[in-house]
Amino acid sequence: MEAYLASKDVGYVIEKAQIVQTKKSLKNAAGAFMKALSDDCKSPKTSEPQKRRVPMQATEPVEELSDELLEMRKKEVASLKAKLNG
User: Most exposed: 16, 19, 50, 65, by fewest CB within 10 Å?
Assistant: First the structure.
């Protein structure tokens, strides 16, 4: 312990002690503390809640098809299908 205090500043040692204190189930706190010092253990990252996605909105209003135009498009599709099928 004295070696770590001599080579690192006190804040470093205290930071590692706080990391070990936050762990819930420890059988050997002293061993975990020494390992945190030797391995330069970092504090666990907290996960941020996922951001809610905003549904995309159409930039331009959708145009309603007239009955005439709809019938014309259906005929075009039917003729294209007929050409494909032979």
Answer: 50
> How many other β-carbons are positioned within 10 Å of the β-carbon of residue 37?
21
Cα separations (Å) of 62 from 24, 59, 66, 72?
56, 9, 13, 19
Q: Which residue has the tokens 């059988």?
A: 27
The number of distinct structural domains making up the chain is: 1
Residue 15 lies in a domain: yes
23-76 confidence digits (pLDDT tens):
777 788 888 887 877 777 666 666 667 777 777 776 777 677 788 988 998 999
Of the candidates 6, 23, 5, the one whose C-alpha atom is nearest the C-alpha of residue 14 is 5
Residue 15 confidence (pLDDT): 83
Asked if residue 14 belongs to a domain, the reply is yes
Q: What is the spatial distance between Cα 64 and Cα 72, in angstroms, rounded to a whole number? A: 14
For residue 46, being part of any structural domain is answered with no
